[in-house]
Amino acid sequence: MIALTGHGHSPGSAIAQTVSSSDSEDAKNYWTPARMKAATPEDQRRPQKHALLRTKKSIPQGTAFTGIPSVGRLFTHSKTGDHYCTASVVYSTKHNLALTAAHCIYSYNSGTKTGYYRDKIAFVPQYDAGNALYGIWSAKALLVHNGWKKNADPDLDFGFIVLTRDKTSGKNVADVTGSNRLTPNTALPENVHVVGYPASGTPGNDRAIQCDTTAIHRFKYQLAFDCDGFTGGTSGSPWLWRYDPAKKQGKVVGVLGGYHQGGITPQRSYSSLLDHDIADLRDQAESKG
């Protein structure tokens, strides 16, 4: 196994984007069932031939299912319209953090070298064919690493969303859905259970997709797995190591994103290496809760 070590990027140094209570409430109201169904995936991935990561085994196929509570669709609004990715609830002391890919919540323009946080952010745990089974959770703060904000560094393609407390129940999201534990610096290869939300209209029929596959250390600061079916919309999907089917929880060792913002085909997916950079960012997100 290969032990993963730090990037050597400057630690922390992220500035959170706070969301006012009125904007947060507006975001929650914005995402009607019709708007959720009309949103388009953040990424486009097209099938093409490529070499398998595991040369002696056929590539697994992701299968549609009803999802798990700790993973859901992440809806966002940008200058190009309404889009979606995938996000997951990760353990935090205040039970209110969701993890996704940085490119899902912060848009960067390489031509102008400028960017902006998206608005109308809403997380829908276990989204299923238009149904918000565990409610709609809006954001109170967004965080991506400064390395992503400055030049969309693919080695830092991860971000956190601090979610608002439910006004009716007084609960935070993890109190309702449970959470997965972020586990940086995990040695690979390891078997992982990946859950994400592919493009609507695919065989998943507007549902989640799951796959059991092997995560490997692909490039210096990138991880990868092979599994067919991870089309646009799956950016931000958690790679769950030691997944417990009974509890429907595991340890997060990867977040779909990174190289080519997660890959250019539905068969091979990537993640930025998760090391001290994501741990530092998580700690900063905790302080904003």
TrEMBL record:
Region annotation (Disordered) ranges: 1-27
Give the residue spans that cross the bilayer.
Answer: none
- Out of the domains of life, which is the source? Bacteria
Which residues, by range, are in coiled-coil regions?
Answer: none
List keywords of the entry alphabetically: Signal
Q: Which residues form the Peptidase S1 domain?
A: 78-215
What InterPro entries does the database record attribute to this sequence?
Glutamyl_endopeptidase, Peptidase_S1_PA, Peptidase_S1_PA_chymotrypsin, Trypsin_dom, TRYPSIN_HIS
Organism of origin is Actinoallomurus vinaceus
Q: Does Aminoacyl-tRNA synthetase show up as a keyword for this record?
A: no
Quote the protein name from its UniProt record: Peptidase S1 domain-containing protein
